[in-house]
Design brief:
The chain is mainly alpha-helical. It has helices at 2-41, 44-56, 58-73, 83-94. The protein has 4 helices and no strands.
Length: 104
């Protein structure tokens, strides 16, 4: 009986490991696609700026990518985006509302 439990647990761990590997491969594949798209619509400096953001803030990077893709799909991008334009997009995405709490 104990051997059956061990085998069952081992099978579960193998399945979990395989699923995790598949998810990691999908994430890497998606990142490669994103990088190739960005390479075609950003200057080298702008691409480097976005790469730096990715290292520091993955969520902001993802939102910036989505915003850039939205601009491209709407036809609002003529040529390649430069670093200043990417910085402006990042500023707009990073704006936070100030929350003021007043006590009475």
């Amino acid at each position: 009986m104990s051997e059956d439990l061990k085998e069952k647990k081992l099978d579960e761990l193998k399945q979990k490991y395989l699923k995790q590997q598949e998810e990691e491969n999908q994430a890497l594949e998606m990142e490669d696609k994103m990088q190739s798209i960005l390479k075609s619509i950003l200057t080298e400096e702008a691409k480097q700026r976005l790469s730096n953001v990715r290292l520091v803030n993955k969520e902001l990077y993802t939102r910036a990518f989505q915003a850039i893709m939205g601009l491209v799909q709407k036809g609002m991008v003529q040529g390649k985006l430069n670093e200043e334009q990417v910085k402006e997009i990042l500023r707009q995405l990073n704006k936070r509302r100030d929350i003021n709490i007043t006590r009475k």
